[in-house]
Structures are given as structure tokens and as C-alpha cells.
Design brief:
The structure is a homodimer.
Chain A (H helix, E strand, L loop, with lengths): L6 E4 L17 H13 L4 E4 L1 E2 L5 E2 L2 H14 L4 E4 L21 E5 L3 E2 L4 E2 L3 H13 L3 E6 L2 H12 L8 E6 L9 H14 L4 E6 L4 H10 L3 E3 L1
Parallel strand pairs in A: 1-2, 1-12, 2-5, 5-6, 6-9, 9-10, 10-11, 11-12
Antiparallel strand pairs in A: 3-4, 7-8
Helix pairs in contact in A: 1-2, 4-5
Bound molecules: zinc ion (4 copies).
């Protein structure tokens, strides 16, 4: 298989703070610096969360705009993917930055449990986020936290709510959701291939599962996420 | 395989109303009558929802008590399973009837999307319902709406939150959750066997998928649900 391996880098998640890890890039300037290093090392997609000055996650379009602008300037050609994940805001707030027209944005198509709460992605919110992405010509990265989410993404691509081909990220290792399990990972890959042969995919292992998932993804021909 | 096939009958769900189907048993008396017929026809477990006089779902322990008493009188030996599902109430209300000590109760161990909303089973509510079932000596029927729910049930059995062996129901065909898909069904069965070899399982197909799921379950050695 000669297709180039896309490396997707998540420079800042929504959880770690400076107190936990002084190296985590929090300010827009730190994030741009960190993405630039990853870009020079070969990463082609940068998955972005942003924080308020007090380090709490936010979906503030102004902060996203500054980050996007800086990334475009310092990492020309790098694909900017903005998160619409649930930690940064509630409801449609989560998609307020989509009018910035990033090349990609994350899209969760189902709900599941997280370590201490429900990761809420109600059907009408999912449909609204998907419609916004269509409006602004943004390619969604589907966040599949469970098998059913793969089916939901395929259905949405089939009925036109998502413009194909699909780009799916399998997420494993979140407490109370799908653990990092090799037979299940293989079944996810196999199922996506069966239902959407033209789909591309990557995998993200949370915390200590990150290296494991990357190894599985590389061996199975997927993209990787660091 | 000579183990007897357990037939589980759901006499009344939480959705259909008399207007939709005049034959649906709504009152406690109608439900007992209907369960009795199923019992005589060979059903060994009765899965129970209850309704208020206006037909809306409820978790009212008094109505559950009257139903349970009637079932024990008219269907001696039939296993009574009370629902703790999310349509009948919010939060801990859903488990208010567990002090009646039914032999079984349903237990959803994860969240997912339903046709128009999130099926909310937050981690702390799941743990509380499981603890109540332990306190009252009730066997949970795990409702697995997705693959991750099987892993969650196994983890809860391993760390003692659920008393084993597990009894799991695979639910397929709910819009926006796991569809009725044969390879996935096979993988569910295989995964449960791999993780909890002593577990028993049944399957429920929603709406038009009911017959399909029953056929798959019988062929694979599971119990059936009608
Ligand atoms: Zn990715
Ligand atoms: Zn993210
Ligand atoms: Zn059953
Ligand atoms: Zn039920």
C-alpha cells in the first residue's frame, strides 16, 4: 500500500492543564509553536481545541480564528481541524466557529458515557452540526466512540447529511466507553470497509492507550493520531 | 445443546398506546391477562413496563407492586423482570420499584442516542441502580445497545458492582443506535463469550426487526424475546 500515511496531531486536548503538565500548549501562541514543530516533523493534520485565559475549554470563535490564522501562516498546507466536541460548550455553541470554514472539523454522531458524565450528542444537534459543515464546505472527521457510531456515520453519508467519502476516527480507551480492545478494533476497521469501502480512517487511543492504537492503526493501513 | 430455551415476553413497551394498537395491554389487569397467556404458551420471563391511567409511562412503585403481585398469583414460577429504563422517569425515580425485590430488573450500563433524544444513563446513575439491585438480590438483565455496553457490563461484573454470571440482552434496530446487522450480532455474541464465558444472553429487535433478531438468537443458542 503506497498511500502516504497521514499523521494527525492533537496539540492540546480539553483536559490537561499547566499544573498537570507544564509542557501542554495552552495559549494560542504556544499552540501555534507546538503545531509548527509537529508540522516540520511530518504531521499533516492538526486537531485543535482552544482554552480561555483561565485554561478552561471554550468554543469561542474569536480564539479559534486567531489560532486558525496563525496556523495557516506558520504551517502552510497543514490541514486545520477544529473540534466541535462537548467539553468546549453546550449545544450549538459547539459549532459557533464553523463559519471560519476550517478544512476539517470533528463531528460526534452519537452519545456515550465518559468517565464522569454523559457525552451528549443529541440527534438534532448532530444533524445541525453536520448541516453547518455542509454549508461551509468543511470535511467532518467522525469521532466513533462505539460501533453504532460507525453505522450512524454511514447512514448520514448515504442520505446526504454528510458529504463523502467518510473520514472516521475510532476512539478507544475512554473510561465507561469503548476500551482499547484489538478484536473490536479489527471489527471496526472491517465494518467500515464493508459499509463504506471508500472511507478513510484513523484511530486515537486515550492516555496510556495512545501508542497501542497507533501501532494497530499503522499495521492496518489507517492514519495515525498523536 | 440441550439447555432449555428461555422465552422472555415483553407484554407492554413504553411507547405504543391504545390508539396505535387496541390490543396493547395497558392496565395492570390487562397486563396480567396477557402475561398469563404468554406463560401458558411457554414464556418464562416477563419484562414489565407500567403506565399511568392516561397511558403515559411511569416508574410508580405502587403500580409495579400491583402488577408484580398479580403476576406471582396468576403465573406462578414465571420470572418477573421490571424495567428501570429511561422512558418511565428521570434519575433515581427509575429504580424506585427495586425495593419490591423482583427476581430480575433491566439495567442499561451506557448511554446512546434514541430516535429523537439521548438515552441518558450517566455513570453514577448506572452504579446506583446496580447497587440497589445488589442490595435487594435482583438479577440484572443488561441492556446492551452498543458494543461498548458489553464491555462495561463485564467490567462491572469483574469489579463486583454486578453479581455474576451476567445476563445480557443485545438490543438492535433502534433508530440512531445500533441497527440490526448480522455480522455485528455475531460479533456481540463472540465478544460476550470471549469476555464472560459463563454469561447468558438474549436479543431484542425493535419493531420490524423483532423476528429477525429472534431467528438469529435461536440459531446462535441465545434466549429469545418477543
Ligand atoms: Zn485524525
Ligand atoms: Zn479533540
Ligand atoms: Zn430477555
Ligand atoms: Zn423494556
Amino acid at each position: 500500500m503506497t498511500k502516504p500515511c497521514i499523521i494527525c496531531v492533537a496539540i492540546t486536548g480539553s483536559v490537561p492543564r499547566k499544573e498537570d503538565n507544564p509542557a501542554v500548549p495552552i495559549s494560542v501562541e504556544e499552540q501555534i509553536e507546538s503545531a509548527h514543530e509537529a508540522f516540520e516533523a511530518g504531521a499533516s493534520i492538526v486537531h485543535c481545541h482552544v482554552r480561555k485565559p483561565d485554561q478552561t475549554p471554550t468554543a469561542d470563535p474569536e480564539i479559534f480564528a486567531r489560532l486558525k490564522e496563525g496556523l495557516e501562516k506558520h504551517c502552510p498546507g497543514m490541514i486545520v481541524q477544529l473540534t466541535t466536541g462537548g467539553r468546549s460548550g453546550a449545544g450549538r455553541e459547539r459549532g459557533g466557529m464553523l463559519s471560519l470554514r476550517p478544512e476539517m472539523a470533528s463531528l460526534s454522531v452519537g452519545s456515550c458515557n465518559f468517565p464522569t458524565r454523559i457525552y451528549e450528542n443529541a440527534p438534532d444537534l448532530v444533524d445541525w452540526l453536520a448541516a453547518e459543515m455542509k454549508t461551509y464546505g468543511i470535511k467532518p472527521e467522525i469521532e466513533a466512540f462505539d460501533l453504532g457510531h460507525i453505522f450512524q456515520a454511514v447512514k448520514m453519508a448515504q442520505d446526504g447529511r454528510i458529504t463523502g467519502p467518510l473520514y472516521v476516527q475510532f476512539v478507544m480507551g475512554v473510561k465507561n466507553a469503548m476500551p482499547a480492545d484489538k478484536p473490536s478494533f479489527d471489527f471496526f476497521v472491517e465494518t467500515l470497509k464493508r459499509l463504506a469501502p471508500d472511507a478513510e480512517w484513523c484511530a486515537a487511543g486515550i492516555g496510556r492507550h495512545q501508542r497501542e492504537l497507533n501501532e494497530w492503526a499503522i499495521a492496518a493501513g489507517g492514519h495515525t493520531r498523536t
